[in-house]
Write a structure and sequence with these properties.
5-stranded parallel sheet, 29 helices, 15% strand, single chain, alpha/beta, 634 residues
């Protein structure tokens, strides 16, 4: 072929492919064109990686990192740096051999005494880290159903046997031949492997259609070999996970199976956070040697379900508890009057008197609009007429609740060395529980507020008593966490003794509760689906999701709210004191005073500012400034 003819052929290929690329904007037209091309050809050839199958990691180099972690876990620090050595060995092998290389030839350049064992681990890892490409499945099935001769053509150092096992694992059957470059010593990317395909099948090149993802190997050199080559476009199925994240491929390969948009949110955003958090919790439990784990109601409802999937060997209990249920029993405990209660309870900067009465068990007292500053709480308890008048009633009720609470703690074996897992912030529930019984509590939380009591023993995952970047994100959008981490039951009010059988029963707060068919529990379903998928993958064994990976997608939504995300996430139902309302009000509040009050009450303050002002401003920074100003003036 002379230079002018080659140039003209390449021009035709590029023009043809431009037509195909124009169709990519219309998925229906693109699919129609693919099927039309299939109907015109007798033999259909498919590329393997990123065409028939997709890896569950974003970069092939991560495969070697996975292998390194597996080797270190099994054989020790001898294999630190394996990933780089494996990449370097392949580079050296390709420099030495002027054809496609094999895995055996690559391993000949690795200086380990047990290369056969390591190679076996690499092959099993390659198989395990693959998923079927959802874009190609209907196209492949169409070919098989219409009795096309289907072959597989791949540039790869893996053997034909491993490629076959990969295809079988991902459900691809019905092909007649596998043409892999390592077996033939030829490559697609220089056109020579396509010539071998034609020779082996004893057909004319024009009878073959080749489908692949690479413009050079699968289109240009296929067409230069006389074979019609067409590029398949892989679809981005995720909405909230960007392709730079480590979990992108894993999620993108699976999420199309979920049709409900809120299940998809649970899968993409909250499932990743749950896995990262619970992996960290497990590390802490192993480090502390703790076997008994208690998940605090209600915020740990879905965490408990996920934990049982991930770590079924622990003795784990769903602990029916609330701040009010464990703080009232502290009143007059060991004749300390209100001292212990005030030590373990936390109050807002300004509390209305009615809410204070309710917190100490005086629900029947008439409502009052009076307010108490945080700095005056102690003197209020000493001087308030209603509290002094009802002191005997308050103390007797506290004693009854204390008796029931201690009975419940005994029933669930809340003693000895235990872990207490909750969403977190100021850890007041753990602080209260630590004063009752013979128990050593280690708290594990998504985050611990810097204002948490100093004597609380525990750790925070995203932030740990410091004013970090993650702290300000959570404080600026805590309702996006608290709304998700809720349960189908109402908040526990108190423990009571059942007179008939001397056992404990539970009284719950009155008011509305979130429906079990709410978007919240659809998100739970999606999150648990992610947990199951992750636990059934190789990634679970190597702690693939660190805390940055776990929180980045949700952090981006909180910190940089778009209009669409404000509409979706701002509408999440949030239960507060028996009333259900969206995180951000649907309708704009009228008047400056109401808007300021709305900001103070909002659980997504960064999002509230964006919805209020609408302009492209650094809302996270504005929130930090307002928070620090409030903190300074408290």
């Amino acid at each position: 072929m002379d230079y002018i003819t080659l140039k003209e052929n390449i021009k035709k290929i590029i023009l043809f492919h431009i037509k195909i690329l124009k169709l990519l904007g219309d998925e229906g037209m693109y699919k129609t064109k693919i099927y039309e091309l299939i109907d015109k050809h007798k033999i259909i050839s498919f590329d393997v990686f990123d065409t028939l199958i997709c890896r569950d990691v974003n970069n092939y180099k991560i495969v070697f990192e996975v292998i390194e972690k597996k080797l270190i876990k099994k054989y020790g620090d001898l294999f630190v740096g394996f990933a780089e050595k494996r990449i370097d060995a392949e580079r050296k092998t390709r420099e030495l051999i002027n054809r496609e290389v094999t895995l055996d030839e690559i391993y000949a350049n690795l200086n380990y005494t047990n290369n056969d064992i390591i190679k076996k681990i690499e092959e099993e890892t390659e198989i395990g880290l693959t998923s079927p490409n959802p874009v190609i499945i209907p196209i492949y099935n169409y070919c098989v159903k219409n009795n096309k001769t289907v072959v597989v053509t791949s540039d790869m150092y893996l053997s034909e046997d491993i490629i076959r096992r990969i295809l079988t694992k991902n459900g691809f059957e019905g092909y007649t031949n596998i043409f892999v470059s390592s077996e033939f010593g030829e490559k697609k990317r220089n056109g020579k492997l396509f010539k071998r395909v034609v020779d082996e099948l004893r057909v004319k090149p024009k009878e073959i259609l080749h489908i692949g993802d690479n413009i050079r190997s699968d289109v240009i050199f296929a067409n230069l070999s006389g074979i019609k080559g067409v590029q398949i476009k892989n679809k981005k199925n995720t909405k909230y996970v960007v392709d730079k994240r480590k979990t992108y491929n894993f999620i993108n390969n699976r999420i199309q199976k979920l049709n409900d948009p809120y299940e998809r949110i649970g899968y993409e955003i909250y499932g990743v956070l749950i896995v990262g958090f619970l992996n960290w919790c497990n590390e802490e439990l192993e480090r502390k040697g703790i076997k008994k784990v208690f998940f605090a109601a209600r915020d740990s409802f879905v965490l408990k379900e996920a934990f049982e999937i991930m770590y079924p060997d622990y003795d784990s209990t769903y602990f029916k508890v609330s701040r009010r249920a464990v703080q009232v029993p502290a009143i007059n405990f060991n004749n300390q009057r209100y001292n212990l209660f005030l030590k373990i309870a936390s109050f807002d900067a300004i509390s209305d008197v009615t809410s204070i009465y309710k917190r100490i068990g005086l629900e029947e007292v008439l409502s009052s609009k009076a307010e108490v500053f945080q700095s005056n709480i102690k003197s209020f308890f000493e001087q308030d007429y209603v509290i002094r008048k009802n002191e005997k009633l308050i103390f007797s009720r506290a004693e009854e609740e204390r008796k029931a609470m201690l009975k419940y703690l005994k029933n669930i074996n809340f003693n000895g060395s235990v872990a207490f897992i909750d969403v977190g912030w100021k850890c007041s529930t753990q602080n209260a529980l630590s004063h009752f019984g013979n128990v050593d509590i280690w708290g594990l939380y998504l985050g611990i507020h810097p204002h948490a009591k100093e004597d609380v023993h525990g750790k925070g995952y995203l932030f740990d008593k410091e004013y970090s970047n993650y702290f300000y994100t959570v404080m600026g959008g805590m309702s996006l966490l608290e709304a998700f981490f809720t349960a189908p039951e109402k908040s526990l009010k108190k423990y009571e003794m059942n007179d008939s059988d001397d056992d404990v029963c539970f009284e719950y707060e009155i008011g509305d509760s979130i429906d079990t068919d709410s978007v919240i529990f659809k998100m739970h379903k999606g999150a648990i689906k992610f947990v199951n998928d992750y636990c059934n993958s190789l990634l679970q064994s190597i702690d693939f999701i660190d805390f940055d990976e776990a929180f980045t997608s949700l952090k981006s939504i909180i910190d940089i709210p778009t209009k669409e995300n404000l509409d979706v996430f701002g509408a999440f139902p949030m239960e507060n004191e028996g009333k259900i309302s969206p995180i951000i009000p649907r309708n704009a509040l009228k008047g400056i005073k109401e808007k300021v009050k709305g900001y103070g009450k909002s659980g997504w303050k960064i999002g509230y500012l964006k919805k209020l002002l609408k302009f492209p401003l650094p809302y996270k920074t504005l929130f930090e400034l307002s928070y620090n100003l409030y903190k300074k003036n408290r």
